[in-house]
Each structure stands twice: as structure tokens, then as C-alpha cells.
């Protein structure tokens, strides 16, 4: 790729430049000595990655952080813009209480200290989609500090070993989102959409406690689940509701941290892991060649899987922070008793009241699932990872009174596999036809009651078809559809007998094998029968018939 | 009729002695007559006549809205007015029409007051002469008064004096009887200074008592909408109508009292008047000093306790203000990039080039200078050294006042300005920054501390120009402050001479010889 080649050339130029032209002589000598000592004493194999994250999470609120305009993702350009959002002169910010509550709730869920008093600051830079020329953020004293995120990785040979990790949360600050610039390179024009300008963000700063892409990805996934459980952020990375920048450096364990590069433009968790791992390897390669890592901002290119220098002036930018004079200090109260007289409770943000509203967090939920249902930890991850799946699993248990360990296999493998194949999310809030159903109607546990003999075995095809039909004709009962479309199990004993007979007759070798004690071969015959019946044969029945015919 | 107070003309309107439309037309005529003062950037004749007609209907139906119904008023051109050009006297906003009205303007509309026009000022309120705006300088109506001309042998065309600033247009509008009240803005004295130099009452209320929503900011942490009227009583009426919480301005405070109207007679026998010794500043004119003494003695004779007090950190106020003001200016002006509104340079080689030339073309030297300084003070390596230090000094200045008021002082009596109005030709010898530093020296500390302060005209100087004295009160004691100010007003007898009529009458004689002022944009 030409861009990369240029990039590498540029990099080498920089290195040469540093060594031989720009440095004052003493610095040059120092630098050379450092490099020499590095080459002599270090074992490059021991270089490890260090990863810190900055996460911008869009607050799930009806209106923006400082104005009354609605928040929406796909509205027509510039249709959700108040006078304040467009920075019309004379307009002033008015803080949205819901956004403060979201930040406090997130802070509590991440074990942060919620500051009773925090401040807003202006961060200045000129950019076309930042209409005021500054962003209102919290630089001096953010709303929440010193938290921790517990997350887990699945490790071990079979990736079924749960490894617990912790990353420290430095702070959570409230700030405004910017608008969007759309560049028309042909006409060299830029269009500005201010719909997003002023939407509330929580910037979460994670300390460099991670060491690779997988860890970072697991931490971000856990954070995403927490935010979604709290309802403080929808967490959709593709829609930009959660944006992750990674600070990546490498060093030898025990040595001071290396120079870090900031990697931006990462819009999925998968890419996050790839971008970080690429960047760690890139830096290790540079150091092993005796080069120097630059402090710079790099963008992840998902096509090439590489990070590319953005060559911006980020490093030189002085944001000229100053206190925001139009907003008084943000005060939150511990409990109702600590409210000063004359303060309207409805206007106040009360920490303990928010703590009471904290839902069951994913980690707690997983522990509970493992404890009360005896399922495997990795299954608890699968359940919690899909919004609505835990509730669904528990409903199925209630409705069918089946053994949890039997149901879990079907739910996490068969059902989930189907849904993924069909690209149907378990939770369908946005397209739910009943308005508020968490689970699509086609997956109602009642349907399962009818279908249980099939679903607990292997009738995939029929199940998929029922899903699809249910999707197409909402409101129709599952049984009705099964009958109408002839999707039910083939349970006609005569019909099954003749099919089984045909299979047995045409596979004498297999039959012999079974008769000689290799019972596993029976499964092959069963598969052939299912193929004949398009997967709709009642497996229990088929097995019985085949056993009979091969005994 | 035009020289009546709000209270008097309001009564005349209710009693049908004059109709709102007649009154409005008289003011419009007067604006035309006094056009050479350059007090207005835009005259909103159509709006005024419509609003007057609406007021007239209410009067006829016997349902007037309140003491301001049908009263002509003027607004400094840095308050947003829906559908009416709002320029801040800058090329940057010369064609800007806001889609909303400032809260204080809206409140006046809601009271039935009649908008005559938008008044001239220093560009973005940065100045103390009303001489540094894109629409040219404002002339002080007193330049044309008989007494001034005779005392100085002045030629009005060359020897006219400035109004002070930056709300000079608003002060001139009230003094030249084209409006009964005007809104100014006061960040370092921008309402009180021209109020004093134009001989009108100028109130800077407690910070936060009046909403800043819709006031295009100079400095958010010190800006206060100011009220200019011809009597203290009128100022209290307007304050009563404008005060109070505004959901759109998070720094506003609840109204002080529902009843802001002042008693007929003020009693000052039991109050303590502080005379800050540091206000005997270099450059204090003899006439002004004499007035200060005279009024202090009057308090004494009336039975008030007059004590000397010290505000030791006041001397640092100007330099501190300079830093804080530039910092907020640099920040507030960042939005003027030519993208969403305002002037946009045709230079289009790159976005950055467009920003740069837009801002170069749109702002005058004063604004650009403050932006540059402010950004310098905000740089990472300078922030502690300048901004943080200035904030600390600001706190010390505020603490000075607190200490004095806690010791039992009710109000402070000081001059409003060092001297009476300067001739334009003298004033323009010095640059804007030097002038602002000189002119704001007595008014600025009250902004640092967010305190209410009012300038009251007390006499004419030997040159025949008004002298104003300032009263400063504790935070949220605006009503008490005005009560004392009313006593000063009643005791000094300034109003009794009906100076305004004299000034205006003689001005009318001169208008024919004045070359019409072209707009400078």
C-alpha cells in the first residue's frame, strides 16, 4: 500500500532528523547513548504492550447536555439544533439534570468517588464542527474519579477458563459532543451537521492497566454491558454512541513507560483489539530495529488492519483551558438529609437515590447465573453478552421447567446461532411490534412449549422456518403457522418407517458397523434421515426406529 | 412631555393626556432631530409604531400592563432583538439578525414598552468612550448645551465631548430625550461611566439579578445588563420589571422583592456611608472631588454616619480586570468564524485562511488586541502566572468590600469618573486601552465583586458638563442602594434645573450646521 510506504519513509526521515540534524549536540549524544545502552542491555523479546483507553460514551438522554434540543441519530442534517447548539451569540448553557444523573450512576457502577462539587471548563480549538470555538468539558474537577472496572477474559487451552482483571478508572467527565463535518472532496466543500453538537458525553479515562488488544476489547465490552444495563449509554460503537481511543506504548516490565501513540478511529470492539495489537507490534518492531517511537496520533485503517499517522498538530495544540463562567459549580448531594433548605428535591441530584436505582450489573448477574443454575461460567458470559437473553433464558426455564443445563445448550448454541445467522437481535426494542417486548414474539417461551421436543434436539431447519414465518406474519400463533406452512415435525410413524427403511437399505456398510457395536455410526444414519425430511423428523422417534432396524 | 419621568408619563398615558402613538411619534421626531449625536445604530420605527398602537388599544380598553406600558425605550446594540439587526457595532455582525430576543428585552416587550431602536457603542462593548465602534463615535448631547458652549467658547462641530462608554448611545438616548429608559451593559463601568458623563442615572444591579441571556457577552463573569433613566425612581421601576431568575441563565438569582418601587422620601439618618480613601486617585478632577465632598457633607448634615474606609486591593483592580477580561474575550469571540453567522471573508483557499481573514476583517484593532492578549494569558505556560493570579486578586478585591460592609457600612460613596466628559479630539489622543484603564478606575471594582452600584448626576462642572457620583452597596441590596441614591438625587437639586431641556433646546438650534454623520461601515 503506497500510503504505508510513505508513512514508513516519513518515519525513517524523522528518526534521522532526530539523530543528526535538529537536536542540540548534548541531547544528540544522550539519545545515542540511550539507544546504545538499550541495544546492549535490553532483550527486545521482553518488550510488552501497555494500553490505556479514553472512551467517549454518548449519554442516553432525550435532550442535549446544555440545551433543550432532542438527541437523535438519524434525523435530517441540522434538524436537531437549538440556538445554543449553533453557538448564536448571547446564548447560555443550561445543564441537563438527566445527563448529570447518568454520569453519577455510571460513576457508582464503576466504584468511583462522586465529587460533591465539580466544575466545567472551556477547551478551545478551532474546528468547523465545534461552532463555539470551544468545548465545555470538566478539566479541573470531573464529576467522578478513582474507580475500577472488573472484567474477565476467557483463557486457557479451551478458552473456558475465566481470568479476572481490573482496570482503574481515572475519571469520568461530562462534556459536549461536537457536530459532524462531511467533506465533498470533488467540489472541495465541507458540510456541517450540528445535530450531534452538544449531545452529552461521558469521557471515561482508563489507566494504562491493560497489555494487549484482547484485554482492552474485554474491558470495553464489559463497560458496554454495564452502560447498557444502566441505560446511561446505548453503547452502539458503529453509530458512534461509544468511541474508543487507545493510548498504546511498549516497555520492558519494570522500566518506565515508553512513548505512547494515540490510536483513533476505531469503531468496533473487534477492530479495537486488532488496532492495539498491530500498534504494539509496530512499536516493538521499531525499537528492535533501534528506532524511536514518536508521540503522535494514529488512525486505524480497518481495510489494511494498520495504524497510520494522522500527522496532525495535536501534540502542539494548546487547548487554553479556562473555567466556564456561565455555569455555577455542579453540586451533587449525598442524600435527602444533606439537601440545604430551600432546594427543590426535584432539581437536586442525590447520590444515594441514584445508588438505589442501580440495576444488577453484568458481573453480579453472571455470578448469580452460575450459582443458581449451575451453568458453566462461559455460558454465563454468552447469556449476559446478548441483551435480553438472560431474561429469556429464565423465562424458558419457568415455562418449561426443564433442567437449566439442558436449556442452556439450546439457548446459547442453537437459538443464538440461528438468530445470528438471521441477523436478528435477541432484544428488538426498536422494531418490536408489541412496543415494549424485550424478546421477539417468535421466540416466546410458549412457542417453545409446543416446540420443545424439537428444540431440545436438532430440528434446526424447521425452527428457522418458524422464526422466519413468525417474523413475516406477526400475531399468528406458532402452532397455526406450523400447520399452515407444514413446518411441524414429521411424526407420522409409517412415513418415518419407510424413510428409515430406505436409508438402512441403501447403507449396508453402516448397518454392519452398528451391528458390530460401533453405535456412533447411527448418528450418520440419523443425519441422512433428517436430510430426507428437510430436518423436520422427530429425532427421538427416528433414533428409536433406526435402533430397531439395525439391531 | 419628553422630559417627564417614567412615572409621570405613565400617568399621562393612563389619564389619556397623551396616547402611546403620539408619544412614540414625538420620540421618533426627537431621534431625527438629534440624529447627529449618532446615538442609534438602527431606529426601529415600524416596530415602535406597531407596539405603540398595541399599547394604545390596551389603554383604550382600560387594561394597561403596568408602569412601562407604552413607554419608549432604547436598547444597546449588544442585546439580541428578534428580527431586528444586532451589530455590537462591529463589521463582524453588521448584517446579523438574531432569531430571538434577550430576556431583559423580552420582559420589556411583555410589559408593553415600545422599542425605539438599537443604540451605538464601542465595538463589542470594548471601550470607555463610545468612540471605537464600526458606526462612528457617539456625541454627548451636553456638547450642545448653552452653558457648555458659553463656558468654553466651544464650537460644537469640533469641540464636542464624548459620551463615555461603552453604552454611550444608550446614555445619549436617555439624555437627549429620545427614550425614557435605555438598556446598557456594564462589565467594568460601561453603563455608569456614560451615565455619569451624560448626566443620567445609571444602575448596575447585583450580578445575576438580571438575566444575561441574549446579551452578547464581553465578559460573562462580570457582565450585567445596566439600566439608564433620568431618575432613580424610574430605575427602580425598571429594575422591578427586569429582575429575577431566568431558566436560560444559570447564574441568575431570585428576585429581591416583589415591590421594588421606592418610597417618596428616603431617610438616610441611620445609615453609614463609607468613603474609600483609595478613591482619591491621581487624575481626579477638582470639580469632581468638590462634588464628592459636598455630597459627603450633605450626608453628614442629614445625620448619616460618614466614615473613611479602606479598600486596599482596589488599586490592582484595573490590571486584574485587564487579564480576566481579555481571557474571556478571547474565548467568547472564538465563535465568530464566519461559518454559522456574521461576516464571512471571500478568501476560500482553506478553512483556516477563511477563519483568519474573516476575523481580521470583522474585528477592529481593539477586539483583535484583546483576543491576542487573552489567548496569551491562557497558554499553558502562562495560565498560573496571569489568570490564576488575577482570579486571586479578584477575590481579594471582593473581600475588601465584604470586610467594609460587614463592619457596618451601608453604602460607599465615590466619584463615578475621574473627570467630566473629554473632548473627542482630546479623548482620541490616547489609545483605547489607556482610556479604558483611566475611565473604569472607580467603576470597575464593583464588577469584580458583583456588587450593585449606581451613578447619580449631582451637578454640572465648571465646563458645564455633568458630574456623577457613585454609590456601591452590598450584594442584593439594590433596593436599599437606590433608596439612598434617591436621597442624593433629591438633595443635590440637579433635576430641578431641567438641564436636559436646555441641552436639547440648544442642540436643536445647532442641528442645521452639523454635517450628517455617515455610517462608517
UniProtKB/TrEMBL annotation, chain A:
Keywords noted in UniProt: ATP-binding, Ligase, Mitochondrion, Nucleotide-binding, Protein biosynthesis
Domain of life of the native organism: Eukaryota
GO MF terms held by the record: asparaginyl-tRNA synthase (glutamine-hydrolyzing) activity; ATP binding; glutaminyl-tRNA synthase (glutamine-hydrolyzing) activity
Subunit architecture: Subunit of the heterotrimeric GatCAB amidotransferase (AdT) complex, composed of A (QRSL1), B (GATB) and C (GATC) subunits.
Coiled-coil ranges from the UniProt annotation: none
Classification via InterPro entries: Asn/Gln-tRNA_amidoTrfase_suB/E, Asn/Gln-tRNA_Trfase_suB/E_cat, Asn/Gln_amidotransferase, Asn/Gln_tRNA_amidoTrase-B-like, GatB, GatB_Yqey_C_2, Gln_synth/guanido_kin_cat_dom
Intracellular or extracellular location(s): Mitochondrion
Cellular component per GO, a single term: glutamyl-tRNA(Gln) amidotransferase complex
Annotated organism of origin: Takifugu rubripes
Keyword ATP-binding: yes
This protein's name: Glutamyl-tRNA(Gln) amidotransferase subunit B, mitochondrial
Automatic annotation (TrEMBL), chain B:
InterPro entries found in the cross-reference section: Amidase (IPR000120), Amidase_dom (IPR023631), AS_sf (IPR036928), GatA (IPR004412)
Chain segments annotated as transmembrane: none
GO MF term (any one): glutaminyl-tRNA synthase (glutamine-hydrolyzing) activity
Gene Ontology cellular-component terms listed: glutamyl-tRNA(Gln) amidotransferase complex; mitochondrion
Chief location category: mitochondrion
UniProt GO BP: glutaminyl-tRNAGln biosynthesis via transamidation; mitochondrial translation
UniProt entry tagged with the keyword Disulfide bond: no
Coiled coil regions, renumbered to chain: none
Catalytic center residues: 76 (charge relay system), 166 (charge relay system), 190 (acyl-ester intermediate)
Subcellular location(s) of the protein: Mitochondrion
Keyword Cell membrane set for record: no
Amidase domain location: 22-482
Pfam families in the cross-refs: Amidase
Reaction equations catalysed: L-glutamyl-tRNA(Gln) + L-glutamine + ATP + H2O = L-glutaminyl-tRNA(Gln) + L-glutamate + ADP + phosphate + H(+)
EC code: 6.3.5.7
Keyword annotations: ATP-binding, Ligase, Mitochondrion, Nucleotide-binding, Protein biosynthesis
PANTHER family: GLUTAMYL-TRNA(GLN) AMIDOTRANSFERASE SUBUNIT A, MITOCHONDRIAL, TRANSAMIDASE
Assembly and binders: Subunit of the heterotrimeric GatCAB amidotransferase (AdT) complex, composed of A (QRSL1), B (GATB) and C (GATC) subunits.
Family: Belongs to the amidase family. GatA subfamily.
Function (record text): Allows the formation of correctly charged Gln-tRNA(Gln) through the transamidation of misacylated Glu-tRNA(Gln) in the mitochondria. The reaction takes place in the presence of glutamine and ATP through an activated gamma-phospho-Glu-tRNA(Gln).
Protein name as catalogued: Glutamyl-tRNA(Gln) amidotransferase subunit A, mitochondrial
Organism (species): Takifugu rubripes
Species classification: Eukaryota, Metazoa, Chordata, Craniata, Vertebrata
Gene expressing this chain: qrsl1
